[in-house]
Amino acid sequence: MFFVTPFLIYMGIVFFIPVGLILFTGFVSEETGQFTFEYFQAFFTQGLYLRVLWTTIEVSFMGALIVLLCGYPIAYYLAKQPPKRRMYLSLFVLLPFYTSILVKSFAFVVILGHSGAVNWLLRFFLGEDFGVQLLYNRIGVMFGIVHDMLPFIVFPILVNLLAQNPALHRAAEIMGASRTRIFWQVTFPLSLPGIFAGILLVVVRVMGQFVTPSLLGGRTDIMMANLVDFHVNDVLDWNMAAVISILLAVMAGVFLVALARLRGAQIFGAET
Amino acid sequence: MADSNLRRVETLGGLPPARGTVWVAWFMFFFLIAPSLIIIPMSFGDLNEIYFPPRSLSLFLYREYFFESVWMETTFQSIKVAILSTMAGMFLGATAAYGIVRATFRGKKMLGALLLSPLFVPNIVIALGLYIYFARMGLQGTTFCLVLGHTLFVTPFVMVVVMAALRGVDPNLEAAAKTMGAGRIYTFRRVTLPLLRPALVTGGLFAFLMSFDELVISFFLSGFGTQTLPVKMYDSIVLEISPVLSAISVLLTLLAFVICVIITIFYNPDRRTRLRLTGEAETETKTTET
After folding, report:
1. Do the domain assignments include residue B55?
2. What is the CATH number of the domain that holds B185?
3. How many domains does chain B have?
4. What's the pTM value of the predicted model, to 2 decimals?
5. What are the residue boundaries of the structural domains of chain A, listed by start?
6. Predicted local distance difference test score (pLDDT) of residue A129
7. Which tens digits make up the pLDDT trace of B114-168?
8. Hey, are the CB atoms on B99 and A161 less than 8 Å from each other?
9. Most buried by CB count within 10 Å: which residue of A48, A208, B132, B177?
10. Contacts of A187 in chain B (CB under 8 A)
11. Interface predicted TM-score (ipTM)
């Protein structure tokens, strides 16, 4: 207990009091000083806010699904490699994980933009006046999110695949099952806990995303975190900002509880 | 636990992956690495235009970065904040991890979860809380509150790394030191900390990078004159998309690459680390005997 004290005191001052302040700002009326739901009512009765809430949920789940489809083959391929080669190959996944989100967002502006790399290629092959709008819309957001979240799904699945008992695969093989059959009847069902852990981890992280929707998305791709920024820095409405972040934290909390309940879930597998 | 550690080093059994899987995997590797590659040619481009491919090659953008005061000021601010919060985070994180792992009281799991809880709260929520808090105290926009915010952000990461390493340190070594009359702080400082060196290096580097790249908390807490590099970069992408960004991006990617490789070498949660740790423990006890 003695060694825990410094950080516990620190958290009391720099974490618990601010969290309490958010709750206070969201639940206590500015005029009367009484407990109130008026700010929450304001949130849930305005179309704009509800639309942003919906966008947040939609982007989180769509993103998680695409990330899973892109990430599973990576994890599977890595799991099949000998340890040394796997370590080198996993640098492909680790480097983006360590790279600043701003660098990645800027790079995607360069890649997807009107005079960017993709459009340059298209013009090169298809003619001068060809061009597609890949930036400042949902496509741009999805590119950014999938790229940003891949490590968070690859590593939980990889850890799961490597923990699978190799004897099971050998047994299936000896009994004459084809590669496809082994995958769908042995490997995949056994990896479901890793998949769910990865998906929940991605959903929680995407919900609080601020940079990607702001830099790669358009006006209609605004998410909850951007709404907090808007209320603090543009309209100076702290009460609404507090309401939005309370909702965001509660949503994240629900998914985290689900994550913690998953047996074999590896929350930190991807963090370190 | 030991069993799963043994299996972790192995490979998933069965036939090699199908050709289609290999193609998809390598395509995804390319997608993952593409942003880091694209900025390299861009960074040698010319003045005031983002155009792929760049029309002429020069070092103009790098010169611009190193000699324009705004970029350098924000870089130094970021380094300052990152160093201070890493130091604070290492102290708070290592002590807290030790306290939790070696604790014997009931509810230590709850306490551990409580101390790690900033990891699970979206950064924007932490940022808003600290913003309101510091604004009410009139401290808003100072470097001091930036460091306080970043320390809260990085400490749980250090804690996670140190906690994992501590589980591989034999508690008997500490018990031996205590029977020979060392106090608990002395034991922690002279026996445990040296054994944790790889984890501290890893956690510290990770904390430094996390703080150096952190945007959301800095965006809310920094004010005029205390902007960090990521905040300046964010503003630049929103407002003008300055080409200098590509030179900065290359330098930041290099930093990330170096730290990523060091951590990958140092931090290996396989049993190899465990062996190395116990090996070091043996030499350590020998030297203290003589």
Report:
1. no
2. 1.10.3720.10
3. 1
4. 0.88
5. 1-36, 47-264
6. 78
7. 999 998 899 999 999 999 999 999 988 999 999 999 999 999 999 999 998 998 8
8. no
9. A208
10. 12, 14
11. 0.90
